[in-house]
Design brief:
Blueprint: E1 8-15, H1 26-33, E2 54-59, E3 62-68, H2 69-74, H3 76-88, E4 91-95
Antiparallel strand pairs: 1-3, 1-4, 2-3
Length: 105
């Protein structure tokens, strides 16, 4: 899992063999662990919000965590933790892409 040019990665809650990853709150748990890694470092009360570099979401009914490359730039060990979590659990990881807008007619 090497995406050196990606600005964001999506860790999807689908295993490499197509099964839904459990537990169902895995994305929130992972993002919660990463909550202290943020611009400016951890501050009092930060544990009550997700880091902008590691955000849980649902896309097309699939739990995901969006991980920013800024996490890698700020704290490589935190980045490695997230990537190892995905690898160790056989989760699908894809690089984000920018979808071009429709050309004006």
């Amino acid at each position: 899992m090497d995406f050196p040019d990606a600005k964001q990665l999506f860790i999807q809650g689908i295993t490499s063999d197509g099964r839904t990853f459990r537990p169902s709150d895995w994305a929130e748990r992972l993002a919660g662990v990463m909550s202290s890694f943020r611009p400016g470092g951890a501050q009092p009360g930060d544990h009550l919000s997700y880091s902008p570099w590691c955000v849980p979401t649902t896309i097309n009914g699939i739990k995901c965590v969006i991980v920013s490359a800024e996490l890698r730039d700020h704290e490589v060990m935190a980045w490695d933790f997230v990537m190892n979590f995905a690898r160790d659990n056989g989760l699908q990881v894809v690089a984000a892409c920018i979808v071009p807008e429709k050309p004006a007619r």
